[in-house]
Amino acid sequence: MENHITKQQSLKRFQATVAWQNRILSLFGCYMYLGKQQVSYRIVPICFIASSYIVLTLYCAVQAWGDMGQVVLSIVAVFYALIGVTRLAVAISNPTGCYRSIQLAEEMYRRANGSHPAECVVLAKYTDMFCKSVHFYTLCYLLGVTVVALMPFGFYLFRGERFLPLGIVFPFTDNEDSYGYWCTLAIQLGYMLPGTLALVPSQNIYFAFVFNICLQYDLLIERLKQLDERIREPDSQTEDVNSMSIREQLVEIIQLQQLSISYITHIEHFYQLQSFVEFICNSLQATLTLSELHRSFWLPGFFVFPVAVGQMLILCILGTLIEVKSDHFTDQLYNIAWSEMKLPEQVMFQYVLSSAQQSSQLTCGGFADINMNLFVAIHKKIYSFFMMLQNM
To answer: Rounded to an integer, what distance in angstroms lies between the CA atom of residue 316 and that of residue 250?
Structure first.
């Protein structure tokens, strides 16, 4: 009974953490993860903010041509809008897929054996990791945005300098005079704050999907351990009822494995375009920022570069975690006493093994698996592109 309660508590905690992400998204008219509505009229302002931000940023880059620092700041800033537009486009174009992703994640909690302590520990472990990741990422992101938003006021009060955090200006105003500066700063903060509130929950929900994939692999590993214990029991093959018990365990493992493969394939199909755009944007941000920092002391670069690298690092760590869990699952398969099973059961086990050897992974637009190897490869390309810019 206590284990069953633990299972229900993990599910409720997972649902509660996802729920407050949905409450924030609903402020912008996005109900895709709730299944109640697809979109509402409130999505129009956030779409306008994203699209107008891109237009204004490109306009400012053209106007500032000749001032390399301002041009780079404008180009770097537009990549944030492109990431936001991609996330909106993916969610709006496939609301059924969004809701289906949440349903499948919750289904894995319900499929866990609430009477088995080890499986309840797995549920509690990944729910805790998900909740802590959401809180940590949200805190860091909001803290960073707060620092950037307050920085212009600090520069003005303590040094008398006028500093703009983003690479956009209000058209037909002169930033050199007081009125133009404060108007432009107000516009920039108006873009920054809603954009942050919309981007953070979309990233947090991605954490839910990735940790749920890892949870599925650990549940499969626990089921394999239970199967191995049953096979090694002295009377496991003496009675038909015992043999059927092994067969039933194999059937449950096959069903759970197929659901896991289907879930990973669904998440991969859903996020591969978004992942590709994010890696491209963050890579270009890191390259341009590094080039400008090498040329001169550029204060915004000390914020842009760590954020771009950190975002890629987070995605690659999560992808590597999935690969590690997939490898652990395969290793556990090889440790099963399969030779002690009857021939029909060995055929079933062979099917599980062959499916595990063709495991699905999350990819960057279908071009490369998302893992630490991709992170290293991207940063080699960043360095090569940086050196090319220095020689131009």
So the answer is: 33
pTM here is 0.86
Q: Which domain holds residue 347?
A: 1-230+245-391
Q: Name residue 368's beta-bridge partners.
A: none
| pLDDT digit string, tens, across residues 188-245 | 888 888 777 778 888 888 899 999 999 999 999 988 888 888 887 766 555 544 444 7
Note whether residue 236 is domain-resident. no
Residue 293 lies in a domain: yes
* Distances from the Cα of 136 to the Cα of 26, 50, 83, 207, 212, angstroms: 22, 26, 21, 12, 18
239 belongs to a structural domain:
no
Number of domains in the chain: 1
Question: At 282, is the secondary structure helix, strand, or coil?
Answer: helix
Q: Counting beta carbons within 10 angstroms of the beta carbon of residue 69, is it exposed (0 to 12), middle (13 to 18) or buried (19 or more)?
A: middle
DSSP readout, 27-55? HTTB-TTTSS-SB-TTHHHHHHHHHHHHH
Helix, strand, coil percentages in the chain from 3-state DSSP, rounded to 5: 80, 0, 20
Place of tokens 């279908």: 366
In a domain, 240, yes or no: no
Coil, strand or helix: which one is 148?
A: helix
